[in-house]
């Protein structure tokens, strides 16, 4: 996992402030840019993530890095009582709906042990300052047997698709995002921020170290995104 370190890819302690201020700025156009740049596929991926963590006995969920609330709304539609948590007040302010929203960081969750039946996080892991601390916090607030489901970007395995994806993600997305949001810096950060993502092996190791069974990883969108599901071991 690359820790970043330059102006566009800061490392801790600067990263948290940088990420917070960036999402505060792009909040008003965030959902529009997402829909356009994923051709609407992100809604399908979120639904698949929610399918994987919900089911009988899942009544209470937490969404970390909830942003403007796409996953919160999807969980709520399935009848799950969900709390959204994010560090950006700008993103939380855009989110409508009656579900509780909390401004806090995933690295220090303001909830008691074993509070939730499921925890989700969409496109947020690479923005966390300390993913290991977030995963440990998720394990603490999840009930044993509860599922943690993550949606994140990924790099396609097929070489041809990978080249096309690389051009799209690094050249086209910054232009579309910059035009729609008027924030060119934020949408230059987006493709570069994949360097913060754990490798598949690191995902497994981190989650197991933090108290989960080895995770399942599902590639979606021809490998441009991934869903990682891990079940909380009994303490
Ligand atoms: C790319 S957005 C994703 C929003 C939403 N989950 C979605 O799927 O559209 C990432 C979100 O994670 C939040 N975030 C980043 N680091 C965080 C942290 N350490 N704790 C809580 N939220 C964080 C950001 O403020 C931002 O709203």
Helix and strand arrangement:
Layout: H1 14-26, H2 30-37, H3 41-53, E1 60-64, H4 70-77, E2 81-86, H5 89-94, E3 101-103, E4 116-122, H6 131-141, E5 142-153, H7 159-181, H8 184-192, H9 200-209, E6 216-220, E7 225-231
Helix pairs in contact: 2-7, 3-4, 7-8
The structure holds S-adenosylmethionine (SAM).
S-adenosylmethionine binds next to α1 and α4.
Detailed description of the structure:
With 235 residues, this protein is α/β, with parallel strands linked by helices. The chain has one domain: 3-Layer(aba) Sandwich (Rossmann fold), CATH 3.40.50. It contains nine helices and seven strands, in the order H-H-H-E-H-E-H-E-E-H-E-H-H-H-E-E. Strands 3-2-1-4-5-7-6 form a seven-stranded mixed sheet, sandwiched between helices. Strand 6 and strand 7 form a beta hairpin. The longest helix is centred in the last third of the chain and has 23 residues. The chain is globular. It starts with 13 loop residues before the first helix and ends with a strand. S-adenosylmethionine (SAM) binds next to helix 1 and helix 4.
Short description:
With 235 residues, this protein is α/β, with parallel strands linked by helices.
First-last Cα distance:
27 Å
CATH class identity: Alpha Beta
CATH superfamily: Vaccinia Virus protein VP39
| Sheet/helix structural class | alpha/beta
Counting DSSP H or I runs of 4 or more residues, the number of helices is 9
Calculate the mean pLDDT score and round it.
Answer: 92
Q: Please provide the count of β strands.
A: 7
Task: Tell me the CATH architecture.
Answer: 3-Layer(aba) Sandwich
User: What is the CATH third-level topology name?
Assistant: Rossmann fold
**Widest beta sheet: strand line-up:** 3-2-1-4-5-7-6
Radius of gyration using CA atoms only: 17 Å
Estimate nothing, just give the exact number of structural domains.
Answer: 1
Low-pLDDT segments, ≥5 res: none
Main β-sheet: number of strands, strand sense, barrel status?
7 strands, mixed
How much of the sequence lies in strands comes to 15-25%
Q: What overall geometry do the principal axes of the alpha carbons give?
A: globular
- Helix-strand string: HHHEHEHEEHEHHHEE
- Hetero compounds: S-adenosylmethionine
The percentage helix is 40-55%
Oligomeric assembly: single chain
């Amino acid at each position: 996992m690359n820790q970043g370190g330059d102006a566009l890819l800061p490392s801790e302690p600067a990263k948290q402030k940088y990420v917070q201020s960036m999402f505060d700025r792009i909040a008003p156009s965030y959902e529009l840019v997402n829909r356009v740049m994923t051709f609407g596929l992100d809604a399908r991926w979120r639904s698949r993530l929610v399918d994987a963590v919900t089911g009988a006995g899942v009544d209470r969920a937490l969404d970390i890095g909830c942003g403007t609330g796409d996953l919160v709304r999807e969980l709520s539609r399935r009848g799950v009582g969900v709390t959204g948590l994010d560090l950006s007040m700008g993103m939380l302010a855009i989110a409508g709906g009656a579900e509780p929203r909390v401004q806090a960081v995933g690295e220090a969750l303001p909830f008691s042990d074993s509070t939730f039946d499921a925890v989700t996080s969409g496109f947020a892991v690479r923005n966390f300052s300390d993913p290991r601390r977030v995963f440990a916090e998720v394990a603490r607030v999840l009930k044993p047997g509860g599922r943690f489901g993550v949606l994140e970007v990924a790099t396609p395995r097929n070489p041809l698709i990978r080249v096309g994806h690389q051009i799209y993600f690094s050249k086209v997305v910054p232009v579309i995002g910059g035009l729609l949001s008027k924030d060119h810096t934020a949408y230059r950060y987006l493709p570069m921020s994949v360097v913060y993502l754990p490798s598949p092996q690191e995902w497994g190791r981190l989650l197991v170290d933090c108290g989960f069974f080895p995770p399942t990883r599902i590639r979606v969108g021809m490998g441009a995104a991934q869903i990682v599901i891990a079940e909380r071991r009994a303490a």
